[in-house]
Structure formats: C-alpha cells, structure tokens
Amino acid sequence: MMSKSTCIVTTMLLSYAFARTRPAFCGIKQVRSFHRSTSLMLNRILFDVSEIDNGDPDEEVNAEAPMATVTLPKDDYRTIHIAKILGLRNGDYLRAGTVINPSDGEKHEFAGLLTDEATVTWLPEGKIKKAEPTKNGDPPGSLCISIPHPPRTYLQSSSSDEVPRVSLLLALPRPLQLGRILPMVAQLGVDELILCNAMKVPKDYFGSHIFRKPEVLRGLLVEGLSQSGDIRLPEVRSTKRLKIFLEDELDGLFPPDEVVRVIAHPQRRNDESAPLRMTDVKFPMDDVSGKPRRILVAVGPEGGWEEPYELDMFTSKGFQQVTLGTRVLRSDVAVVSLLSLAHEVCSK
C-alpha cells in the first residue's frame, strides 16, 4: 500500500509526462525557435547571396513556398553549429540573414535580408536515414534553410546612420594571426579595412592563402558578423606600397575635413612627455560641420612602426599619435583595444 507522499509524487510525475506529450496527442506540432526577436540583433546564421539556391522576390507570394532557400554541405561550420550547438530539427526556426558587400557595386536583390523564422530541413546522406542530428550531435547530412516571404522576412537598409564610423589601416600581421583578427574586426565593426605593408612586415605575408583565396577572407569576416548580428561587410583593400598609398589615395578615401586620422604606437619608457590617449584625440570638425564623427586608426606591426621614418610619414599626413602605454602588444590585442576606444570616442 502506497503512502500519501508517494501518491502525490506519482501524480505529479504522471501530470508532467502528460503535459510533455499532450501536443502530440492533440495533433499539434511543436516548433522550436532560436532567438526569435526582431528588436535585438543577436547571433545570426549568415549567407552570401551567391549561396542562395533559388528564389524570386517578385514572384507571387505562396504561403507554403519559401522566398529563397540555401543548402549548406554537411561539413560547413554553420551546419555543424546548427546540429551540435543549437540541436535544431526539421521545422524549427532559426535567425538568418544575407550579407551586404559594399564592394559588389550594384546591390543584389537578396542582399540584406533578415528573418527570425528561417526554417530548418535536414537532408540525410549515406547510411543515415533519420532527418535529425545524430546522438553525438553530428549533422545527418546537408542542411536546407528556407527563407520565408515578407512580412516574416524584411530588408535591412544600408543607410549612412548604420555604417560604422571607424576604419582601420592595419600593417599586415602573420597569416595565422590575421585569421584571428578578421572575425574580431567584423564583430566590432569597421567601415573600411586597409591591409598595408610596413618596414617590419615580411614580404611573404602577402603570399598567404587568405590573399590567394578571397572567399577565405570573406568567410572570416562573415563569421565575425554572425557573432555580432550585423550583416554589412567592411570594404577590404590591400596595398604593398604604404608611402604611395598615403600620398596618392589617402585623401580621396578619408578626406581630412571629414575623418580624423590616428596612428597608434607604444610609448617609450624614457619619454617624459604626456602621452596622447584615444580620448584626447581632437575632432576639429565638431565645431564646423556637426556631422557624426569618423576616425581612421593606423595599427602597426607587433614591433611598432619604424622610428622615425614611418612615424614622420604618418604625422606629415595629419595623423595624431596615440598610445596604449609602454607595453608592446600583440596585433590582435592592440586592434581590439584601439577599435573599442575609437568607437567610444566616435559615439560622443
């Protein structure tokens, strides 16, 4: 004979089990959603417009047919993330979008799409028959993501108010380090990224696979955007001749009356002069134009810019020299720190 407490526990367990299975009894499909919120730009799975399988934004809307679909291979890092980390199954919702690339010229019709209700469909391959992640979390095969029609999908505008006000001129770091820096740069947000040469940069760095395969560089930037939730890729340039770039192209890309120029360099330990910090940078156009602040930050190699030649070359072009102190930082640490400070001073 069961005691009163045992009966209560048994009743609670049965009620809980029925509540978990009741939708199935009632014929109601349970759909899980991942971060469904249009007011917050949290993590998104992003695609390049070239990855779209099919779709026509002008065709007659069919409530059952998607506006566009994207099929990701089994070994794609996004497929693995959706299976192993998110654990999504067929019919589940996913936050997704397509990136905007300013260097593409004419904007693609599908660039800038955002949705919180992209639908997941697994396509089993090989001996796997179940259309769901395996027991150890591996993808069962390739993955089809369906992007619905408006209003469940909307187009993100690329107005000037949403463009980052910070640009980065970066002395090319080691290829392995560059692979770590690019997603960080995209996460923090820059308008333009210029990868340049310097006296302390080995010439063979420009022969890296990242430059030979543009899709690798672009993929690293998209990875960073996916983390931040943004969809606008920075415009990337590279130059092997720094002096010619500063003399011939700098003013056209970054007019001195619109963009403040800053060069970062470690402070000498025996230098008794007051160091200039990022918060001390002068924005003379504040009193004239009233336009939003814009800034170009030049970050050198890990050993710093060559003294005095390169420092004099930058200061002659109107760069204000700032420092993070006497410590010589790795390129990735310096870039993250300086971009964070630059965004802060531009927001004032």
Would you kindly provide a written description of the structure presented here, covering whatever features stand out?
This protein has helices at 4-25, 77-86, 175-188, 209-212, 214-228, 242-248, 250-253, 309-315, 331-346; strands at 45-47, 52-55, 68-72, 93-98, 113-124, 141-147, 153-155, 166-171, 192-196, 235-239, 260-264, 295-299, 320-322. The longest helix has 22 residues, at 4-25. The chain contains 9 helices and 13 strands. The chain is elongated. Helix 3 (175-188) runs parallel beside helix 5 (214-228) and helix 3 packs parallel to helix 9 (331-346). The chain is α/β, with parallel strands linked by helices.
Summarize the structure.
With 348 residues, the chain is an alpha/beta fold. The protein has 9 helices and 13 strands. It is 28% helix and 20% strand.
Order of helices and strands: HEEEHEEEEEHEHHEHHEEHEH
Let me know the average pLDDT. 82
Please report the distance between the alpha carbons of the first and last residues.
Answer: 74 Å
| Helix-strand makeup class | alpha/beta
Number of strands: 13
Helix content: 25-40%
Q: Assess the beta-strand content as a share of residues.
A: 15-25%
Helix count, DSSP H or I runs of 4 or more residues: 9
Unreliable stretches: 7-28, 35-42
Largest sheet: 7 strands, mixed
User: Overall 3D geometry?
Assistant: elongated
Our Rg estimate from Cα atoms comes to 26 Å
